[in-house]
Write a structure and sequence with these properties.
The protein has helices spanning about 10-20, 65-75, 75-85, 95-110, 140-150, 195-205, 230, 285-290, 315-320, 345-365, 375-385, 410-435; strands spanning about 5, 25-30, 55, 85, 90-95, 115-120, 130, 155-160, 165, 175, 190-195, 260-265, 275, 305, 310-315, 325, 330-335. With about 450 residues, it is of the alpha+beta class. Strands 6-2-1-7-17-16 form a six-stranded mixed β-sheet. A six-stranded antiparallel β-sheet has the order 10-11-12-13-9-14. The protein has a three-stranded antiparallel β-sheet with strand order 3-5-4.
Length: about 450
């Protein structure tokens, strides 16, 4: 079969390149790292997890849990490799980020139909292609995409949390628990704070110095991933009702939840590195040391990685893309990943999966598929292709993006379960109708009280 170009070696590009190669297409995978990096990346490996190390909930009554199950049945590379490198993380699919990326890189480099090209793509390629360069697309390609689309671009800021070393944590001030006792009991290390300790931390956070932004760049953040200092600026209790909420995290020393709590999540299988959950930040590095060390358990914390903040860009996709992820102006050009306005690791990979399956069909002389909006995949693809372009903003997968049930149960929890069950039935019917191969489904839990960490 003819050659295909995939630009971008992130989650979406890695998924797309693998799916196309597995279907017999010769793939030219173009990735600019390591010759040129970005403010967020640290390695030259494919599918690097630049923010947190979790794919979020694995439960079917959670939209991202349903999305993962649909992708799993469709043979997703990213989900399969992620499950190989699972580490404790409550009810979330949490990964050893280094082993995960190394495995994806090895598989792509060793595939006989994948040619890895380490160079910066400065324009839109001719011939069948998928652009999956993510939210940190280089300037030359970004300008080429903007000129091609004729719609301009939107922008917002995104941020990553700090990571500290295991030996620098004061474990005498930590207790292990998952919220409401869901998931593995040792998945999260909880750092409690008294009212006085929390107020000292909050005041220091509000006064801390942040990195300067360029004068020409505005500050529009994605609401689901706000920097911790932005949340602190919204009020004294905002963090206590957000990422530092103590609800469902009873301290065994007192028998009751603390006033506030910072959760730490494992970064690797060895447990040598721990992520400060919900503490994505743009503080200056010296300020991160000063402020986060005010949390009693982190008084001597050593930072393996500081939090960073970076500018993300995305297309005005509803004006540019079809629900197949084809460009409206050029049917053999597809876009995938966070550049289309989907937010989250799993959502990015889902775009790569859809784009590659549809491009493969196009190359075989078949019609690309529009996934039913009763599925999580279909609801997400409809959102990025059929929303109001003027008000378009990045979005995680959500049950609200899917078609509602014709006769929904009154209880919200039961409604979610029935939507998930319907989605998997519809996926099987859709796949059988269009000759899409499915893998056997995996049993997934449905429960309340999930960990929601990004």
């Amino acid at each position: 079969m003819g050659d295909v170009t995939v630009i971008g070696g992130g989650l979406a590009g890695s998924e797309a390149a693998w799916q196309l190669a597995e279907r017999g297409h010769k793939v030219r995978l173009v990735e600019m790292r390591p010759s040129r990096s970005t403010p967020a990346h640290r390695t030259a490996e494919f599918a690097e997890l630049v923010c947190s190390n979790t794919f979020r909930s694995d439960a079917l009554d959670h939209p991202v849990g349903l999305l993962k199950e649909e992708m799993r049945r469709l043979g997703s590379l990213i989900i399969a490799v992620g499950e190989r490198h699972r580490i404790p993380g409550g009810t979330a699919l949490t990964l050893d980020r280094e082993d995960f990326s190394a495995d994806v890189t090895r598989m792509l480099q060793e595939h006989p139909l994948v040619e890895v090209v380490c160079e910066e793509a400065e324009g839109i390629p001719e011939g069948p292609a998928i652009i999956a360069t993510g939210p940190l697309t280089s300037a030359a390609l970004h300008d080429a995409i903007v000129a091609f689309s004729g719609q301009g671009e939107l922008a917002y800021w995104d941020a990553a949390s700090p990571i500290v070393t295991q030996e620098s944590i004061d474990w005498s001030r930590v207790y292990f628990a998952s919220r409401y006792g869901k998931g593995e009991p040792d998945a999260f290390a909880n750092c409690p704070m008294s009212e006085e300790e929390y107020k000292v931390f909050w005041q220091a956070l509000r006064a801390a110095e942040t990195h300067e932004r360029e004068a020409f760049e505005d500050e529009r953040y994605f609401e689901a991933c706000l920097p911790v200092e932005v949340l602190a600026g919204r009020g004294e209790d905002t963090l206590r009702f957000g990422p530092m909420r103590p609800v469902g995290l009873r301290d065994p020393k007192t028998g009751r939840p603390p006033y506030a709590v910072l959760q730490l999540r494992r970064e690797n299988a060895a447990g040598s590195l721990w992520n400060l959950v919900g503490c994505q930040t743009g503080l200056r590095f010296r300020e991160q040391q000063r402020v986060f060390r005010l949390i009693p358990a982190l008084g001597g914390a050593e930072f393996e990685r500081y939090g960073v903040i970076h500018r993300n860009t995305f297309l005005k996709s509803p004006a540019v893309l079809l629900p197949t992820l084809q460009a409206r102006l050029r049917p053999d050009l597809f876009f995938a990943g966070q550049i289309i306005g989907s937010e989250g690791y799993v959502e990015a990979a889902a775009g790569g999966l859809v784009a590659s399956l549809n491009l493969s069909r196009l190359l075989r002389g078949e019609e690309p598929l529009v996934w039913p909006a009763t599925t999580a995949i279909g609801g997400l693809m409809r959102y990025v292709s059929a929303s109001d372009p003027a008000a378009f903003q990045p979005m995680h997968v959500a049950f609200g993006l899917m078609d509602p049930l014709p006769d929904p149960p009154r209880r919200k929890e039961r409604r979610k379960v029935e939507m998930a069950e319907r989605a998997l039935r519809e996926l099987e019917t859709f796949a059988a109708l269009h000759g899409v191969m499915l893998q056997p489904g995996a049993a997934r839990p449905a429960h309340e009280g999930r960990e929601e960490a990004r």
